[in-house]
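From the methods appendix. Each design record in this collection lists the tokenized structure first, followed by the designed amino acid sequence. Records were kept in a plain field format so they could be parsed without special tools. The example shown here is representative of the layout used throughout.

RECORD:
FOLD TOKENS (271 positions):
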């Protein structure tokens, strides 16, 4: 990945009539309904954009969507990329760099996650206050990474405090249960063992998933303030662990998604 690659991607999108979006959004697994809230002006397949890779999961549409939401111009990644799809960190985070280069000033991220904290229930949502990177690498650890900014990025507060506070206030006003906690990011795609869930709890994780952290690291490198919300789709109790139920995971995502949409729509109004 080079700066020129980013410029070519941005040049292509602008040639399609894309204006400068103010807010970038990444939609996670089973969380594509927010698209229906948008007045869409452009919808472009990832595979048509130079240097983008393809989303390989059925639950990820694989489209870059432009339009307006709550009166603001937005760009949405409807579907993200994961290490477990065989992509590297540069490919996983490429869209974040492109959206920033297009002009985005804020980044809102969503994901589906398992609840490690047993005070949290499936079908609820969690505001990510901090994270633990267990993916075995960094999206800033490549030869020409310095071309994109400082690689020794401060991560003392990776999630934007003011936006987090805004989201908490919005949740309170709308009677939405919004937990706050630590998200651990693993490679996957296999789910965790009982021993791994115990380990995650010991090291301080409240939820676990397979995304988001690389995107947040890059956002911090390039000066893109970000927030992230996890939709809790299952409960990871190592002492009462049941086989994974994929249809139930999607059902829990669908149950919680309206709350996520409310939170982000109201936040966008305030940005």
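DESIGN:
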């Amino acid at each position: 990945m080079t700066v020129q690659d980013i410029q070519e991607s941005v040049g292509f999108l602008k040639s399609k009539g894309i204006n400068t979006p103010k807010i970038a959004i990444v939609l996670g697994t089973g969380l594509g309904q927010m698209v229906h809230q948008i007045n869409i002006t452009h919808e472009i397949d990832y595979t048509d954009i130079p240097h983008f890779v393809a989303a390989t999961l059925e639950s990820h549409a694989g489209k870059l969507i432009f339009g307006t939401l709550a009166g603001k111009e937005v760009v949405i990644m409807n579907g993200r990329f994961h290490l477990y799809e065989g992509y590297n960190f540069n490919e996983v985070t490429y869209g974040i760099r492109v959206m920033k280069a297009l002009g985005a000033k804020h980044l809102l991220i969503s994901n589906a996650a398992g609840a490690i904290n047993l005070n949290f229930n499936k079908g609820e949502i969690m505001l990510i206050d901090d994270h633990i990177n267990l993916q075995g690498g960094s999206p800033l650890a490549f030869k020409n990474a310095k071309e994109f900014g400082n690689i020794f990025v401060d991560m003392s507060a990776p999630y934007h405090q003011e936006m987090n506070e805004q989201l908490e206030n919005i949740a309170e006003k709308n009677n939405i249960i919004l937990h706050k906690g630590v998200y651990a990011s693993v490679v996957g795609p296999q789910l965790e063992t009982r021993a791994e869930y115990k380990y995650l709890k010991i090291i301080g994780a409240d939820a676990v998933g397979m995304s988001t952290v690389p995107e947040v690291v890059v956002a911090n490198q390039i000066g893109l303030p970000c927030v992230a919300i996890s939709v809790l789709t299952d409960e990871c109790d190592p002492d009462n662990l049941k086989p994974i139920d994929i249809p139930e995971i999607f059902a829990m995502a669908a149950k919680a998604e309206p709350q996520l949409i409310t939170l982000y729509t109201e936040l966008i109004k305030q940005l």
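APPENDIX NOTE: The first helix runs from residue 3 to 15.
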